[in-house]
Design goal:
InterPro entries: AB_hydrolase_fold, BD-FAE-like_dom, GDXG_lipolytic_enzyme
Order of helices and strands: HEEEHEHHEHHEEEEHEHE
CATH architecture: 3-Layer(aba) Sandwich
Mean pLDDT: 93
Distance between the termini: 40 Å
GO molecular function, one term: hydrolase activity
CATH superfamily: Alpha/Beta hydrolase fold, catalytic domain
CATH class: Alpha Beta
Protein name: Alpha/beta hydrolase
Organism: Flavivirga aquimarina
Pfam family, one: BD-FAE
Radius of gyration: 19 Å
CATH topology: Rossmann fold
């Protein structure tokens, strides 16, 4: 009986996580060879063109990896739901830095890191659109997603493209249908407009000590510190989208800190349902979930 149960469990597990994964180089920048892992359902048909989540991992622009265990788990989940999951690497410009991204890291350097991360993300998006047939992606249904530093990179790539990129026309075909931001923020939410506002999912803790949920300094640096730079977090972004009558889903944890950057696996079905209703069915859903930290 034990052997039978083991075989059944093995077959169920194999079916649930049945996908192909291929790695591609999307850009080479100096000594950095930037790659992306494409996870595709094994049962995909030749002529299928599937929606995609293009994911940027966190790590304070100094660490993390596109194949972190949680990133791999997320990619496998997406293939079960009929998506193609793509997890990217990008330049970790603070790797081996003595200051990290804290208050001793100059604001000008932080801004350039944000800029380069946004450009790397846009280059990855441009690559998958240029190779949409080979990768079997639907270029009209690309959801941009990221965690912590990755969320900052994604938000700035989508909403501040014209602020950070000198020639945005290079990315005119790299468009996004939705965003998932886990503990992310923008340099200036006023760049969100009727022209670029899209359905956005936001997870954030009210007591995040690194990335503010409202309008506050990055890492809560003091005005006389080199790293003093104002960011606008999930509350500000949600309010802006509310004004623009654009769908959003804000999950706010009162007392929550930066752990809200972790992938919310228990909420993924709800998140994808939100995108199905707002992207596919064009519904205007503006939701705020406010819970107390346990």
């Amino acid at each position: 009986m034990k052997h039978t149960l083991f075989i059944v469990a093995f077959l169920v597990n194999t079916f649930m996580f049945s996908q192909n994964m291929k790695t591609y180089v999307y850009s080479i920048k100096g000594s950095d060879t930037l790659k992306l892992d494409v996870y595709t359902p094994k049962n995909i048909k030749t002529n299928d063109s599937l929606p995609v989540v293009l994911w940027m991992h966190g790590g304070g622009f100094s660490g993390g990896n596109r194949n972190n265990p949680d990133e791999v788990k997320l990619m496998k989940y997406l293939t079960q739901k009929g998506f193609i999951g793509i997890s990217i690497s990008y330049r970790l410009l603070l790797k081996d830095s003595k200051t990290g991204s804290g208050c001793e890291c100059p604001k000008t350097f932080k801004l350039d890191i944000f800029r380069q991360a946004a450009i790397d993300y846009l280059d990855a998006a441009k690559y998958i659109v240029q190779n949409k047939t080979k990768l079997q992606i639907d270029p009209t249904h690309i959801i941009a997603g990221g965690s912590s530093a990755g969320a900052e990179g994604v938000l700035n790539a989508v909403y501040l493209k014209h602020f950070f990129v000198d020639d945005a026309s290079k990315y005119e075909n790299a468009n996004f249908a939705g965003i998932i931001s886990l503990a992310g923020a923008l340099v200036n939410a006023n760049y969100i407009s009727e022209e670029n506002a899209i359905p956005t999912v936001l997870f954030h803790g009210t007591d995040d000590n690194l990335v503010p949920i409202g309008k506050a300094p990055h890492h809560y640096c003091k005005p006389d510190q080199l790293g003093y730079m104002i960011l606008e977090g999930s509350d500000i972004i949600a309010n802006k989208l509310h004004e623009l009558h654009t769908p959003y889903y804000l999950h706010k944890v009162v007392g929550g800190r930066h752990e809200l950057c972790q992938i919310p696996f228990s909420k993924l079905d709800e998140i994808l349902d939100f995108f199905n209703k707002t992207i596919t069915d064009k519904e205007i859903i503006q939701t705020k979930h406010i819970i107390q930290k346990k």
